[in-house]
């Protein structure tokens, strides 16, 4: 059966919940509509998260992202909506979503939204030579 857009985000159990580790997902073909003009807006999304008990299943993420294709939304609103939906589905230790929107009217827009679970602190950065 072919895939179709869906607002349903599926998850699976984190295979290594005892360790902080980052999952980075690059989504180069995000599309939504400008709520003022109806013209398409294109962005590359960069998702980074530290899972707690759950990880996002990638096919469901693809279909979820696809569901925005015909939705009118300001860049700031759609970035925060995606972040909130991912946080609701995953309850991660940390999640950052960066949305790099393509030029429109000579202006590029980047929106970065973050979630940090209460009490979670990242391990100190290790700089190697």
Task: Describe the fold and architecture.
With 129 residues, the chain is of the alpha+beta class. It has one domain: GTP Cyclohydrolase I, domain 2. It has two helices and six strands. The strands form two sheets. Strands 2-3-5-6 form a four-stranded antiparallel sheet, covered by helices on one side. A two-stranded antiparallel ribbon has the order 1-4. A hairpin with a 2-residue loop joins strand 5 and strand 6.
Concise description?
The protein is 19% helix and 38% strand. It contains two helices and six strands, in the order ββββααββ.
Widest beta sheet: strand line-up: 2-3-5-6
The outline comes out as globular
- What are the low-pLDDT stretches, counting only 5+ consecutive residues below 50? none
Secondary structure: helix percent: 10-25%
How many H/I helices?
A: 2
Radius of gyration computed on alpha carbons: 16 Å
Tell me the major beta sheet: 4 strands, antiparallel
Mean pLDDT across the residues is 96
**What would you say the CATH architecture is?**
2-Layer Sandwich
Structural class: alpha+beta
Counted up, domains total: 1
